[in-house]
Specification:
This protein has about 140 residues and is mainly α. The protein has helices spanning about 5-55, 60-139. It has a domain at about 20-55.
Length: about 140
């Protein structure tokens, strides 16, 4: 059996790892989201460049019509996306807030449980030390 002080040290190291993992997960999730957004923007720009290049090879009139149509469709799509995004954002914000509250409550309860576990472990250590001291004095 490991000495109690070593067990308490390992518990401390594990608690620190949990803290570090949580901080890393926050950064990693944000980075993945940003990478996805950057990739989407690059793909969109590449597609638009190809379309513009194809339109440039057409006659001037066709190019003007294409450009006008493209701008109208793009403006219409942006308007629709903005309306959808606003509606989704409102719904998702409320849902995310409820999920975050629930997760925070669970984490707070887990932390309270860990405090209790540490307190009980410390009491057990003290009881063990007292028992060892009593045993040593009786020998």
């Amino acid at each position: 059996m490991k000495p109690l002080s070593e067990q308490l040290q390992e518990l401390s190291v594990r608690a620190k790892k949990a803290e570090d993992d949580e901080a890393a997960a926050r950064k990693e999730a944000r980075a993945k989201i940003q990478a996805r957004a950057d990739k989407l923007k690059t793909e969109t720009n590449t597609r638009n460049a190809k379309i513009e290049a194809a339109a440039a090879s057409s006659k001037e009139k066709t190019q003007e019509q294409w450009s006008s149509l493209h701008k109208k469709v793009q403006a219409h799509n942006e308007h629709i996306r903005a309306e959808i995004a606003a509606s989704k954002a409102e719904h998702e914000a409320h849902r995310a807030d409820r999920k975050a509250d629930s997760a925070e409550n669970y984490a707070a309860e887990s932390i309270a449980f860990a405090y209790d576990a540490i307190d009980y472990a410390e009491w057990a250590v003290m009881d063990a030390l007292i028992a060892r001291a009593d045993a040593d004095t009786k020998m």
